[in-house]
Structures are given as structure tokens and as C-alpha cells.
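Dear colleague,

As promised, here are the two records you asked about, laid out in our usual form so they can be pasted straight into your sheet.

NAME FIELD: protein one
SEQUENCE, THEN STRUCTURE:
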Amino acid sequence: MVDVRRVKLPGVGVLHTFYTVDGGKVGVITHRSGQSDLITFTDSDDGEATKVSLRLDDDEAHTLAELLGGTRITESLSGLEQVPGLSIDWFTVDYEHFIAGRPLGDIAGQGVVGVTVVAVVRGESANPAPAADFKVFPGDTLVVAGSPEKVAKTFTYFRTGEVKKAVADASPGS
């Protein structure tokens, strides 16, 4: 049976990884939001590494797990624990998303407060703490930190450009 490593990712969830017989690496990030990312890594003959990532919702993840069968999981040595109230999640920008081709701008000025874009990953490089004028392109991955509700609100803004006020966010008399 294959050995699976389990690592807790603070504010994100849990990462499970294992190596295949042909030297590939497979990983699943189970986010606190319930979504999962299936990730595969492989080295080609020319020395180039290839990575494929696929976001699965809860039903899709369960279906894939049923299709693949059971596993044996071993706990990885890690002092990392989840941080209550903090979620760190990734948003991959597609061509149809509102944020595509635009600068990040002032998210708080758009009505989304309490979140931070920690980094923008473009290709093989990360751009930590991007400024408001940092232009976002399709294929970029935005790393966002905040409460789970505010991260979800931010992702809606990135997709549609709209910010829907929750009852708790509405000012008195609005």
C-alpha cells in the first residue's frame, strides 16, 4: 500500500501527498471551505517539472475518492496548527473573471474589508504583498487571507466585480 504524508496547513486545511511508482507526486489540499485541490507533479526527460492542479467541490472530491478506493495515511511531523478564524485560499484567474486584466486596486475601497492578497503567483514566480497597481492576468493565482466568509466575498468580487453586503456588513438605516 502507498504511504501518504499528511501536513496541516495553517488557515488553509490539510495537504496529503504521495509518490507514484514512476516518480510522480500526487497531492490533495483539502481546504477548510470544503473544496479540494488535486495536484500532480512530474519530471520530464528534459529536466522540466510539470504541475497540474484541479479544484474539486465536495461532491466531486467524494466521487473521486470512491473511484480511487482506500488509502493508508501517516501523520507528518509538523508543529503547524490551524489558526481559528483565518482562512488562506487560492483564486486562479480565468479570462472571464472581472479581475482579469485589471490592477488589484483597493479591495477595501470596493467594500471588501478584512482580507489581504498575500501574494500573486504567476508562472513559477511569486509576487508577495502586491501593491494596488499590480495588474492581474488570466492564469495568475491570488493567495488571499481573511475569515472564511470574507475570503468567499472577495472571490465573488474577483469573479463578478460585485460586492453583496451581508446583513452584518450593512450600515444602520441602509
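NAME FIELD: protein two
SEQUENCE, THEN STRUCTURE:
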Amino acid sequence: MTWKVGSFFTKTAIPTPPEKNIPISNPRFKVIVADFYDSTTNNGAINLAAVLNLCEGIDATAYTQNFDHSFLNLESRNIFDLIDTGNSILSQNKADVIIWGYRDKDRVRLNFQAQYQYEDKGNSFISLMDCFYLPAEVLNDDPHKISTELILLLYGAVVSTVNSPEREMQIYRKYLLKKISAQLSQVDSLQSLEDQYFPYILNMLGIIYLSLAYDSQHDNDFKIINDLFSTALQHQNQILHPTHLGCIYYHLGQLNDCAARYTLSNSAVYFRNAIKNYQMAQKYLSKYTYPYDYGYICYKLSELYINYWKQTEDLQALRDAVFQLRESEKIYTQTLFPKFWAHIQEELGYLLHNLAHLTKSTEIYNLAVTAYQNQQKVDTEKENPLFWAAAQEKIGNIYYLQGRKDLDSSLLEDALSCFHDALYIYETARLVPNIKQTQSDINKTRQILAEIKEAEEIDEDEE
């Protein structure tokens, strides 16, 4: 990636916009640009939507309805209002991304929000706390005078924010990111920018490239992205708020997390760097002020510790994974994030089951059962029968292990009940492999029960 000297924000000539030759069959990402919190002009949202509509695959609309803008200062617990309002607008308009604009003196701050932004879906790396600043005058004028470079950067930010769990949308998103990245690599140097914007542009470039290269197996791809975030950190004296600094560390954690998972070399180094940068991010994104970012970082840390435990059988890594997931559980409640909460409960059940097995702790076994039962509060037998049956089977296995260890016929009978519940669902769905496995579980449980009863009868005869 090479840079030359040039202007980034504005040009006197009208630039050629990104190509927009779109077959009718291609998907389109629906973008809502919320009416800016701006006492000077009301045209910012409209102009930004017009700019984005120049871009392939984007259907942008300015949202000009009246709503309370007070939460856009991003301070204190207003973050809850911001997220809830954004999710409501996204849902009502069946949109993929909402852009919030907030005027700060002679600058406009943009924040990007997507569906499932704080859940483990899709491959979006951008946080709602990521801020992108640009001169307010850029959006006050004719939108056709905005530089091609800035259009590309905003376009890349929007596509990077899209977080659809649908495979087709993910494929198209990556296709667009390839085209955007190829054009960005030809952009003139950022050296001519005013210092106040430099770290924010580097941060956004890093997010765009990471969104494209997250599953790369080439160390060099991650090194290039690392340079962008690291250079942004070198200019932290131009960063306006500690939260923004936390976001950069957050993305460095994500970068190293992906590198540890996908590259064929240096995985141990990437693993350690991921943990270090995630922990640095948590210092700036505290659980009391920015709980969702903090909670999701805990979730990602748990995944790292799980992988390390699987590779090394280090018991402390397993304990650390449980601790981090417990922290995440405190943030993502059943009421606000039911599906993600259920997923966390399933993961907790798995971790606690293994921890109980290694420590021979009945108490931890019981905690594992509780976690799986919590999962079933969302993944009910009626709504998600296969998920419910899988959880019931796991509970049965825990009862079986405890009953076999303690020669407790009551626990073994509980295990039989769980296995039969699961078997009924699997038979109804005609899932032959699941049926065979559950029948095997039933047979081994009955065998242990028979042995216990036989031993009890012998004892009675001897008496």
C-alpha cells in the first residue's frame, strides 16, 4: 500500500464517483442516515445519503423524523438510549446500517450502527463507539463536490458495518470490499490531512481492510493492517476522547485474534497480542460506561482462552474462559439479547461441564446443568426443538456421569428421562446419527442402573 501527496476531503473539480453498474439481481444494503444533531444546517443527512447513493450496492435514505438527539453525546448511560433507538430504526425500516451524525463545532462526527452489532453474528469489526470525523463544511455544500477519496472511505465504512448473518449477503459484502480496497490502495497520501483527522482515517482504513482480510492465511496482510492501527496510536495526541483510543486497541485485539485463528505461523504470538490489546481496550471501554463493548470483548477473550485450553489442556485457561464468559453474561441479558444470551448459556454449560469433569466438582456439574436449562428458556422445545433436544442430551450426560461416579440410581434415572426426551425429538426429525447416539446413551445408562440394582439385591441377600 503506497501513498502519495494529495488532498483527501475536498477538490475543486467534481470527481468521478465509484462505478455503479449493478445487475438487477444483486443485493442492496439499505442504509439510513439519521438527521444530524446540528444547529447550523439540516442538510448533512440528506447530502450524505445522496453521496452514498452513488455507490454500488447501497440504497441510502435520510431519516428526517423528529427524535430526541440528546443521547448522541455518547456520554454516560445515554449509550443505552442510542443503541435502543438505533435498533428500533433499523427494525422499522428493515435497514442494514444506520449512520448517526453529530456536529462538534466545525467538525461532524459519524457513528455506524448495524443489526446484531453486539452479538456473535456476521463478520463486522466496527463498534458503535468508533467515531469518524470530517469537516462540517464538506456536508454543507453540494454533495457532488465531496472528494472521491472521502466517498470511498465512507463507502468502505458502511459496507464494513454491514453485519448480516446471511451467507449470500456476506459473500456480496466481501465482493464489494475487494473493489473498495483496490480503489483505496490507489488513493493519494494521507500526509496532507490536518492532524485532527489523521488517526480517525487510519482507524477506519484498518477496519475496512480487516473486514476484508480477517480470514487470510498470510501474515503480511495482518502486518499491513497492524501498521494502520499502530500508526493511529502514534498520533493519539490528536485523539479527542479516551474512548476512541480504546476502539483502536479493540481493533488491534480483533486483528490479532483473527491472525491467531487463521494464519499458519506465529499463532502463539498473535494469541498473546490479542489478549493484551483486548485487555487494553477494556481499560477505556469500561463495563459501567460502555457495557456492550466491554461485554463483547469478554466474550472474545473467552474464545481465546477456550482455544488455548484445547491446545494445551491448561486448567487455568479453562477457568479464565469461564470467568470472561461470566462477565459477558452479566451484560447480555435474556431480556435484551435473548438469542445471544442463550448462546452464552450453551457455551457456559460446555465450559462448566469440562471444568467439573477435570476438578471432580459436583457443584460445578450442577452449574453446568443450570446453564443448559437457562439456554432452554430461549431454545424451547416448541420453538427450537433440535436445540432444546441437544441441551437435554447434554444435561443427560452430566446426570449420567454423576450417577455413575456416585452409583446414584436417581441421577441415572434423570439421565434416562433426558435421553428419552432428546430421542423423541430426533426420531420425529428422522435424524439417524443423533438417534443412534442417543440410543447408545440410553443403553449404557440402563446397563449401569442394572449393575447398581444387582449390587443392591446382593447386599440385601447377604443381610
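A couple of things worth noting about protein two: Residues 1-152 form one domain. The radius of gyration is 26 Å.

Best,
R.
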